[in-house]
Write a structure and sequence with these properties.
The complex is a heterodimer of chains A (115) and B (112). Chain A is mainly β and 115 residues long. Helix content of chain A is 0%, strand content 56%. The model of chain A has no long low-confidence stretch (mean pLDDT 94). The model of chain B has no long low-confidence stretch (mean pLDDT 93). In chain B, strands 2, 4, 5, 6, 9, 10 and 11 form a 7-stranded mixed β-sheet that branches. Chain B has a 4-stranded antiparallel β-sheet with strand order 1-3-8-7, with no helix packed on it. Classes of the chains: A mainly beta (115), B mainly beta (112). At the A-B interface, strand 6, strand 10 and strand 11 of A face strand 4, strand 5, strand 9 and strand 10 of B.
């Protein structure tokens, strides 16, 4: 079965500094990975995905993620954090079956960006 | 924002009651999935509907049931509510041509 792990419950970073939110995965076959963000009282917003190809994936709001097959990691990064980036971030992996698929989420990492 | 809408926004029920949550999928999407997000956890897959048929189910009891309508909107029904059913219920839509699920804002269910 597919799974993802987010080793940090919380990440704190100062505004303007680079940020990294960590994710490792365990899959059979080729991974199909996602990052979602959740703001208070809001649903999940899609940030980016990795299917195949370039190991550096660019997404919304200046976020990017680096796929590393040897380390089975898919860390989310941003060169310069904003206070408005403070939110709950979920790493996720897709699991397929005949005719359908679901998204399996990590436990989430709360990002605090301090002004 | 996605084109996925959910109603109601909030709901309070008592143990043993029944509840129906509603979801309208994004235009062009024929697949709807439901997830339960308990406080402090990631979303957990409940089930998926494709062209009005359930085509996948997570580890949830039969008192969680659903429907999908010809316009691809969907309902989640929960019977005999338990306190542990208190959670944010998220609907996600996708299509044969999308590899990503797009989520609605969710319905916050509180069971007292």
């Amino acid at each position: 079965a597919q799974s993802v792990a987010q080793p940090e419950d919380q990440v704190n970073v100062a505004e303007g500094n680079p940020l990294t939110v960590k994710c490792t995965y365990s899959v059979s076959g080729n991974p199909y990975l996602f990052w979602y963000v959740q703001y208070p009282n809001r649903g999940l917003q899609f940030l980016l995905k990795y299917i195949t190809g370039d190991n550096l994936v660019k997404g919304s709001y200046g976020f990017e993620a680096e796929f590393n097959k040897s380390q089975t990691s898919f860390h989310l990064k941003k060169p310069s954090a904003l206070v408005s980036d403070s939110a709950l971030y979920f790493c996720a992996v897709r699991e397929d079956w005949a005719g359908g698929f679901k998204t399996i989420f990590g436990a989430g990492t709360r990002l605090f960006v301090k002004a | 924002e996605t084109g996925v809408t959910q109603s109601p926004t909030h709901l309070i029920k008592t143990r043993g009651q029944q509840v129906t949550l509603r979801c309208s999928s994004q235009s062009g999407h024929n697949t709807v999935s439901w997830y339960q997000q308990a406080l402090g956890q990631g979303p957990q897959f409940i089930f998926q509907y494709y062209r009005e048929e359930e085509n996948g189910r997570g580890n949830f009891p039969p008192r969680f049931s659903g429907l999908q309508f010809p316009n691809y909107s969907s309902e989640l029904n929960v019977n005999a509510l338990e306190l542990d059913d208190s959670a944010l219920y998220l609907c996600a839509s996708s299509s044969d041509r999308t590899d990503t699920q797009y989520f609605g804002p969710g319905t916050r269910l509180t069971v007292l």
